[in-house]
Amino acid sequence: MREAKLVKPNKSRLLCLLDLLNKETDEQHPMTIAEIADRLKQEGFPCGWKSVRNDIDQLISNGVDVVCNKGRELQCFIGDRELELVELKMLVDAVQASRFISAKKSRQLIDKLAAFASVHQAEQLNRHLYIDKQTKTTNERVFYIADLLYAAIRDKTKIMFKYYEYNSRKQKEYKHNKQIYIFSPYAMLWNSDCYYVLGYSDNHGKVITFRVDRIAVPETSDEPAVPAPEGFDPSTYTRGVFQMYNGSEQDVTLKCENTVMKSIIDRFGEDVETSVVDEEHFTARVHVSASPTFFGWVFGFAGKMKITAPESVADEYIRLARLEAEKPD
Predict the structure, then answer these.
(1) Which of 97, 185, 247, 255 could form a disulfide with 291 if both were Cys (CB 3.0 to 4.6 A apart)?
(2) What is the rounded CA–CA span in Å between residue 270 and residue 206?
(3) Strand pairing partners for 213?
């Protein structure tokens, strides 16, 4: 019996066809029209070769990239997708490596990313990227805290929260006896694979940063945020403040061996101000927070980097280094 001419594809069948092509086909795994028709029948949509072909033409006319290879049997598969496989692989690696995403949330996100690929491609998303799982946050609410912070930045309102750190027994402990922080967020920062929020703290009376994954019980406020200082540049702050420790911000000159140029660029970017001293050394002028964390970073280069100016910062570095050396074992 001849199949009746299909005037308008059944919408439910069309969606079922689109779902089938998305999930089970790619360039290496096409399906013939006969195979597609058989699968649609299994889903409760009896149809023949002509109906399937009409439905595919309908998808193509609506912008779906269905590729049909002509041969002994017409084979079809989804071509371009919202995200290419190589892009999905990079996103999976980023999710796995990110410290601010918990292990549980990482698995959930990777499962969702896999939905953008065919079932055959999804197998390739089982990445073997080594990460130190101990560095993953255990704060499952970090996504929702970040969303609240972004909303406060957009609405220019204050937020309130408690903040915790860890005591010597590795137990979470609220700072300053469960103090409530009143905070005007300006920007979110990403530094050393950690998420920070930058803004004005009423409690401190200045601009500081907080680790997002250590914020607890945040609440929004109807009170307007304290405006950011004129000319305030979050990117400059990010480059200058090492590990988000507070200190006096100032320009510092470093005399370095040529071998540490890559570390200077990694930390301060390619536009960092440098000049050649001799065949083995160069100087770098950088804007930093002159804090113990910065001094520790310099010390880590084992003499290949020295602070030459200003004199006050160089003297403070020497003083702290001597105090460290004089500590009893």
Answers:
(1) 247
(2) 30
(3) none
CA distances from residue 147 to 136, 184, 213 in whole angstroms, order as listed:
19, 15, 12
Question: Phi/psi zone of residue 177: left (φ > 0), alpha (ψ -120 to 50 degrees), beta?
Answer: left
The pair of three-digit structure tokens given for residue 213, joined into one six-digit string:
């994954």
**Tens-binned pLDDT, residue by residue, of the chain (329 aa):** 344 444 444 458 999 999 999 999 999 999 999 999 999 999 889 888 999 999 999 999 999 999 998 876 789 999 989 888 889 988 888 888 777 788 788 888 988 999 999 998 888 887 655 555 445 666 678 888 999 999 999 999 999 999 988 776 767 889 888 999 999 999 998 776 678 899 999 999 988 889 898 999 999 999 999 999 888 888 767 665 544 455 677 899 999 999 999 888 878 878 889 999 999 999 999 988 888 888 989 999 999 999 999 999 999 999 988 887 777 66
Q: Please, are residues 251 and 307 in contact by the beta-carbon 8 Å criterion?
A: no
Run of H or E residues at 54: helix 49-61
Residue bearing tokens 């010390």: 299
Query: Which two structure tokens, joined as six digits, stand for 43?
Result: 């889903």
